[in-house]
Amino acid sequence: MVATCEFVTSEVKNGVLIITINRPDKLNALNKQTIEELHETLAEAENHSEIRSVIVTGAGTKAFVAGADIAEFANFTIEQGKQLSATGHFKIFNFIENFSKPIIAAVNGFALGGGLELAMACHLRVVSDNARMGLPEVSLGVIPGYGGTQRLAQLVGKGKAFEMIVTGDMMNAQDAYHWGLANYVTTQEALIEKCLDITSKISSKSPTAIKTAIKVINAGYNNKLNGFEVEIEEFGKSFGTGDFREGVDAFLGKRKADFKGN
Fold it and tell me: From the candidates 11, 46, 137, 229, which is the catalytic residue?
């Protein structure tokens, strides 16, 4: 699977889908078309068993994604604003969070507004040492509308999230690592290589178990679910999978497992 759209490009390397948001002249800002293309690319990847993980990054050296395309919604009504947020949640941000394969945000440079919200929806974040991350929406008279008010607090804590959102201040790479917003900090040159190091570890593990783990971890942050009960249920189901049988047989036989994702 190698898809090329106008603003989103993708390629597969050793079972890893690398998606690049490609609007460098606009600092990769998210407009309606980019969101649609990103959704379509991910939806297609969901059904390809050879793709085991995903890396999302931005084109150029200045920005991962520097926010939403403000010009597109400058004259929106209240109802249009609500629809903008709801569509974004459905097509990208919740879609990524609940994706069945691990998604890593490779944050190169600025990740602001919708860009930081995109990174936070991903399961892991690797950031370049020149990264700057923030939610400056209050400077425009709005609030983060793509999950930022919820996911930032989950990652850095309520107090720090309040500070970042109400001041609009940016956080540098080292502070992002300190506060748990970034899993790793690396140079811009080594950014994708670090992500590929992580995906190489993922590729040797059970796709079925990974898919289930993502579901169960997310359940713990869903106030309509009891994460512990979901864990018990899904743990039990694991015993009926082909990957469980293969994993146990490989362990007892002292060989490397060959997981099929079933």
Answer: 137
- Neighbouring CB atoms inside 10 A of 224's CB total 5
Same domain, 145 and 228: no
Q: How many CA atoms lie within 13 A of 13 on its CB side?
A: 12
Residue among 79, 117, 193, 233 flagged as catalytic: 117
Counting the structural domains of the chain, the total is 2
Q: Is 6 a catalytic site residue?
A: no
Is the same domain home to 21 and 142?
Answer: yes
pLDDT tens for the chain, 262 residues: list them: 555 689 999 999 999 999 999 999 999 999 999 999 999 999 999 989 999 999 999 999 899 999 988 888 889 999 999 999 999 999 999 999 999 999 999 999 999 999 999 999 999 999 999 999 999 999 999 999 999 999 999 999 999 999 999 999 999 999 999 999 999 999 999 999 999 999 999 999 999 999 999 999 999 999 999 999 999 999 999 999 999 999 999 999 999 999 999 9
192 and 74 co-located in one domain: yes
The answer to whether 234 is a known catalytic residue is no
Would you say the pTM of this structure is higher than 0.90? Answer: yes
- Is residue 121 within 8 A of residue 96, CB to CB? The reply is yes
Q: Do residues 164 and 102 share a domain?
A: yes
User: What is the domain range of residue 215?
Assistant: 207-252
Question: Looking at the domain assignment, is residue 244 inside a domain?
Answer: yes
Strand ranges of the sheet holding 132-134, from the earlier edge strand across to the other edge: 63-65, 110-112, 132-134, 171-172
